[in-house]
Amino acid sequence: MKNKILFFLIFLCSCKKTFHSKNIYPKDIELPYYNEPTFTPIWLNQSNLKLDQIHRVRTFNFQNQEGKWINQNDLFGKIYIANFFFTSCGTVCPKMALNLLKVQKEFSSNEKVKILSHTVMPWIDDQEKLNEYGKLNSINSNFWYLLTGPKHDIYKMARESYFADEGFGKSITDVDDFIHTENFILVDQNGRIRAIYNGTLPLETSRMIEDIKSLL
Fold first, then answer.
1. Cα angle 72-77-78, degrees, rounded to a multiple of 5
2. What is the CATH number of the domain that holds 131?
């Protein structure tokens, strides 16, 4: 009986998911760049690539919670966090929202920093729904954009610009397959990805805040 109990306890411990950050570089090292979905870090001084060969976020045009259309020109010269969510999500999305509120508290007065949260259910989360969600969650609409638009455009943006798809275990996903990701993606002033974080973890959010400061 004791052996069965011991085995059960070991089994429970082994079932706990351990998250290993993709940002494994020391704090005092310059943030790397990311060129493809595996998020293999690239440092220009250790690579044959030149800056103009590094992946950049594609052009976009989405509507925010106040009905304003936001495109890449509105983010030029700004650092921003991109993520994906939906307003009726009751599991990971509230955790992500709480962590992004910490970013809002830290940087909302800084015009050089923004948050872009894209809904993955735009057929439900229209501008009015996002506005209601924003007010309910104390979101500063001048700092944190809740974005909606055509599903195909959002999903294409998520997969091709931000590599923001965990694919539900599928090796290949279609552009219109449901987006599933807990990640925050840090994008620099020139539209290049500089870091990725687990958006549900407070420790990762603290690291992200420090990384944003390093880019300012």
1. 80
2. 3.40.30.10
